[in-house]
Amino acid sequence: MEGDCLSCMKYLMFLFNFFIFLGGACLLGLGIWVIVDPTGFREIVAANPLLFTGAYLMLAMGAMLFLLGFLGCCGAIRENKCLLLFFFMFILLIFLAELSAAILAFIFRENLTREFFTKELKKHYQRNNDTDVFSSTWNSVMITFACCGVNGPEDFEAIPHLPYSALEKAIPEACCQRELQSREGMFVNKEACLSGTERFQNRQGCYTVILNSFETYVYLAGALAIGVLAIELFAMIFAMCLFRGIQ
């Protein structure tokens, strides 16, 4: 009976990790294709910071799942205690990292307020200075989401870091409307925007825009995270049971 249970667990673990292996291979292949594809899709991804970051995250996740599934499959089917132990340690590290991230996100959630971002923007933002990481990141966010500041263009009225000419009002170029929401996108009317014509400016604050964009995915992401943690926990239990059952 004990042998039958061990054999069943072995094949269930193999099947479980085989699907992880296939999923990782698909993600890895898709990530590589997006990054190296010569047909022009690469330029679209490179022009959008979010898509660019997402492509590399997909590549990293695919490689990790590919390796994880391979270790689990080989360890289960060959009944190799060394591979099973390595699989368990790998899963444990990922589990602890995800758990730590969740705890830190809960602890520092109060920092993700409108007031916090407004204070940081007014303190560190240097308008069109793209050599500054903070300013460059904010400019990319405002261009990508077609928004301006945290609350709106009024956030830039009290930013004294760089003087602006008589033509330019307080808002930076990143707040001007573009035909395509990327750094390479042509301005609708840059001069009118910088001179204060509101219809050529993005007037909505980024905090509201981004919150509305991701609000529908928050609960889904939370449920998915709990599901992933539960799967990882069961994978560790199966690996240890199989490890101890192998003579």
Automatic annotation (TrEMBL):
It is found in: Membrane. InterPro entries: Tetraspanin/Peripherin, Tetraspanin_animals, Tetraspanin_CS, Tetraspanin_EC2_sf. It is a multi-pass membrane protein. The chain crosses the membrane at residues 12-36, 56-77, 84-108, 217-243. Keywords: Glycoprotein, Membrane, Transmembrane, Transmembrane helix. The keyword Transmembrane applies. Pfam families: Tetraspanin. It comes from the Eukaryota. One of its GO terms (cellular component) is plasma membrane. Belongs to the tetraspanin (TM4SF) family. This is Tetraspanin. It comes from Melanocharis versteri (Fan-tailed berrypecker). The gene is Tspan18_0.
